[in-house]
Amino acid sequence: MSVDVPTLTMVSALTSASVALALAFSLRTDIAAIGASLRIWAAGIAIQAVGWMLAGMRGTISDAIGVVLGNTLVVLGFAECERALGAFGGRRARPLAYIPLVFVTLTSIVFTFVRPDRDQRMIATSLLFAFVLALASGAALRVKAEGSRRPRSQRLTAATLAVAGATLFCRAIWILFAGQSALITVIVVYVCAAVAPVVSSLGFALMCTDRLDRELAYLASMDPLTGVHNRRSLESIANREIKAAERHGHSLSLLVIDIDHFKHVNDEQGHEAGDAALRSLTQIVRACLREEDTISRFGGDEFVVLMPHADMASAMTGAERLRTAVEAGSQMTISAGIAEWTPGEGLFDVMRRADDALYRAKEAGRNRIEAGATSAARSVHAAESR
Fold first, then answer.
1. For 6-65, what is each residue's pLDDT tens digit?
2. Four-way CATH pick for 5-221: 1.25.40, 1.20.1070, 1.10.3470, 3.40.50
3. What is the CATH code for 231-385?
4. Where are the domains of the chain?
């Protein structure tokens, strides 16, 4: 069964154009890096589609358009996909992927009009196409992954671009040693004009979806103003730490921090000054506390610090160091209450005692640390042990 290559090329080009149109209108986001890279990728696929379409019309239109412009647009589309992956990974655009544009245009002109040689033209353009696709595959692999293993979406995108590039490279080698082959031409058109744009676009769309999922997870667990954990995230972490403390029998303390006279800052200096004070406090707390401590903004100007493997004495020492650092390094002071977890307590039981201690610190004049009362659970535990 014979395959009409121009028809296959046109169908493949229309498929790519449909993918570009779908990407342009279906995946919209306010996240700058994702939105910009999606637009560049969709444009690249659309440019490729036009290039392949012109290639499919060779023989019915002038070679200047069907060969020279068609080849140039295809390689430009590949380069735009490489740029999209770079933008997605937060990397600046590199001119390297666009240099082959000049060579593709020149070789297409030379081997079509100056010294007509179809084989030489196909070898040269195939190698240049393969080079740009290799750069694009590398750009996909260079996108920083969250864990030690790259997501499947990233591997799918990189592998698809690599296969397309390898196909074009093999085509150049085949023509160099065995001459033209209708079968090789069909394979190249099918892989590079039909399969690669669709599958790589699917992979890239999944990469964007993965990034969006991570962004949403971050927004759900972190405070956008200060960049620390929010209340929801603290509850999850605290429950995990309490279970670990129960299982291994280590200590666990909780510190509730409040900025003194914070309402006056907002009322007299404005909310921007209040936001700056919250961010400043966060930076000082991060600098003073241990790596294993968890800081969260519980609401307003109230912060909660979870301190694993810290008894009351250790937590008091750390809290006093923090209070001194805030007083010395900013124009504000803090008050704080500390409570040490006891077996049988939940997060809010400990927080209740820490809140009571914070209230006493404020009543005693602010800019001080108070220790929470011993819990009823601890008193019972102590009595039973006697």
1. 888 888 888 888 888 887 776 666 566 688 898 899 999 999 999 999 988 988 999 999
2. 1.20.1070
3. 3.30.70.270
4. 5-221, 231-385
pLDDT at position 379, please? Answer: 40
Q: For residues 24 and 38, what is the distance between their CA atoms, to the nearest angstrom?
A: 7
Q: What pLDDT was estimated at residue 385?
A: 40
Q: What parts of the chain have a pLDDT lower than 50? A: 1, 376-386
Spell out the SS3 assignment of the chain. CCCCHHHHHHHHHHHHHHHHHHHHHHCCCCCHHHHHHHHHHHHHHHHHHHHHHHHHCECCECHHHHHHHHHHHHHHHHHHHHHHHHHHCCCCCCHHHHHHHHHHHHHHHHHHHHCCCHHHHHHHHHHHHHHHHHHHHHHHHHCCCCCCCCCHHHHHHHHHHHHHHHHHHHHHHHHHHHCCCHHHHHHHHHHHHHHHHHHHHHHHHHHHHHHHHHHHHHHHHECCCCCCECHHHHHHHHHHHHHHHHHHCCCEEEEEEEECCHHHHHHHHCHHHHHHHHHHHHHHHHHHCCCCCEEEEEECCEEEEEEECCCHHHHHHHHHHHHHHHHHHCCCCEEEEEEECCCCCCHHHHHHHHHHHHHHHHHCCCCCEEECCCCHHHHHHHHHHC
* Residue 224, amino acid: P
Query: Between vectors from CA 198 to CA 196 and to CA 204, what angle results, nearest 5°?
Result: 95
Reported pTM: 0.75
Distance between alpha carbon 350 and the CA centroid of its chain, in Å?
A: 36
Q: What is the pLDDT of residue 144?
A: 85
* pLDDT value at residue 31: 64
Q: Residue 49 and residue 227: Cα distance in Å, rounded?
A: 43
Q: Do 231-385 and 5-221 fall under one CATH topology?
A: no
pLDDT of residue 27: 61
